[in-house]
Amino acid sequence: MDFVRKLVPVFLFASCVLLVTINDNRVKASHRVYSRLQSVPAGEVKQLHRTAYHFQPPQHWINDPNGPMYFNGLYHLFYQYNPKGSVWGNIVWAHSISKDLINWEALPHAVFPSKPFDVNGTWSGSVTILPGNRPVILYTGLDNDKRQIQNYAVPANVSDPYLREWLKPDDNPLVIPSSDMNASQFRDPTTAWWHGGHWRMLVGGKRKHRGMAWLYRSKDFKHWVKAKHALHSASQTGMWECPDFFPVSLHGKNGMDTSKVGEDVKHVFKVSLDETRYEYYTVGKYDPEGDIYLPDNTSVDGRDGLRLDYGNFYASKTFFDPSKNRRILWGWANESDTAEDDTAKGWAGIQAIPREVWLSPDGKQVLQWPVAELETLRGQKVDLKSIQNIIPGKLVEVQGITAAQADVDVTFSLASLDKAEEFDPNWEKLDAESVCALKRSHVQGGVGPFGLATLASQNLEEFTPVFFRVFKTKANKHKVLMCSDAKGSTLRPFDIKQYRPSFAGYVDVDLAAEKKISLRSLIDHSVVESFAAGGKTCILSRVYPTLAVNDAAHLFVFNNGTEPVSVQTLSAWSMSPPKLMNQNLDF
């Protein structure tokens, strides 16, 4: 079924939104604010398309996860939140706590504009836990001149297990942009790390069109000095938002404290590119003595680089969880559909399911997987075993679960790759999303497309396919494309305000040797969050069906390639909502 329509993307804002420089480092925000959407009574919040088990407040707008941390037996998540409406504006640091990363209790807002150094905004940042078990928030404030400056906040009572109240000392700011820097492109301080008698932190920025990770050092965490050189930079990449920098072990899945260095460690450097609204990362080596980060020759900066997620995923932040010796990744699942009338539903934005992240065995990329705690929400289970030779055009329905609120894990086996399509050399100039737009699920291939038709109506008037397609290159190697295609996800009329992309990424897997590939999809009403090949490629899609909602949603396995595909194993679960999801957010 062909749902090809003209695609005009409309992008949303992260915490550090598009600004225009006026003069003398003074800046002016360029947001369009819908005043009628700045206050929506709780009774008017529309439940259609609201997620059941993803992190979300009862109403209003959210974006970046700011400073996740584990502290004294509790997980804390700070995030950008508009307490007055369902569009960007009035941003505060909202604060929630959890014992298990699944059930969340809302607390009073931690940071909000109130002092000269943040009177015009409290934007993204991070948390660092200092010696003596003392957490400190680092965040970007907009001062009276609307410069972006870096501030800190501390708990009013560190013995309070919930850390309900935070103070912003009057010796702020910690860091201001120097006279040669653009004060409107200087934001999002990272979690700091300690080495050789100094703390270090990064602040994202740009110099002309060069992305910059400005490096600052401090002996006491209060007096910071800008280094003579950036930790890392790259030309033609534009503003680097929400940088993240963390170590990963060369051996196994165990996470590491942010200050860990050594021969058994590599580092991951991640930025959110303001120009593309996507995230990119490299894997490389950090020299702590020279304070230089060098990506490996298998990693490249910018638009051609690796991505943590190839879908609606931005402004991510990791933290080390010492209770389970793992590193956890949070990311903002921004809205795909930006029509003003849709935002009037009373809420906008969610957080992706927290993911454990570690280095792949070959050291070339990171792997991601939903935290194990999510499995506690699994309910009714259905197993489909050994479905042999799904022929072209055949659909196999997965019945017996709530298809709009599910967790499905499937492994496909391939008898032969001989009929894989030739990979057009001209496609080397295209990104994976463009190739997917040309080779969507209705376009028959040789090996693939095969996968899942999620959030599908009974007769497939609308559905979101998550699928693989295998190509053969001139070098006689195989290239595996993964797609999560939102173009046919809804029958709502398409217009310029809507963004329904054919999200896609390539999967680094040797199908000739393995002859199988796995896919896990978390389906949650308006979210399809998918993980290929054990977390090598991840795609989160936001979709808004009209027919495939609640009990009317269906889930199918499909194959539209001429080569038969088999299901080796498939397990699917109905997912229950958490017992607590910020219900007491009323501050």
Question: How do the helices and strands line up, and which of them pair or pack?
Answer:
Layout: E1 19-23, E2 26-29, E3 60-65, E4 69-71, E5 74-81, E6 92-98, E7 105-111, E8 122-130, E9 134-142, E10 148-155, E11 166-167, E12 186-187, E13 193-195, E14 198-207, E15 210-218, E16 225-226, E17 232-234, E18 240-249, E19 265-273, E20 278-287, E21 292-295, E22 314-321, E23 326-333, H1 340-343, E24 347-348, E25 350-351, E26 355-359, E27 366-370, E28 378-390, E29 394-397, E30 405-414, E31 421-422, H2 432-438, E32 447-456, E33 464-472, E34 478-485, E35 502-507, H3 511-514, E36 516-524, E37 527-532, E38 537-542, E39 554-559, E40 565-575
Parallel strand pairs: 3-24, 31-33
Antiparallel strand pairs: 1-2, 3-5, 4-5, 5-6, 6-7, 8-9, 9-10, 10-11, 12-14, 13-14, 14-15, 15-16, 15-17, 18-19, 19-20, 20-21, 22-23, 23-25, 23-26, 26-27, 28-40, 29-39, 30-36, 30-40, 32-33, 32-39, 33-34, 34-35, 36-37, 37-38
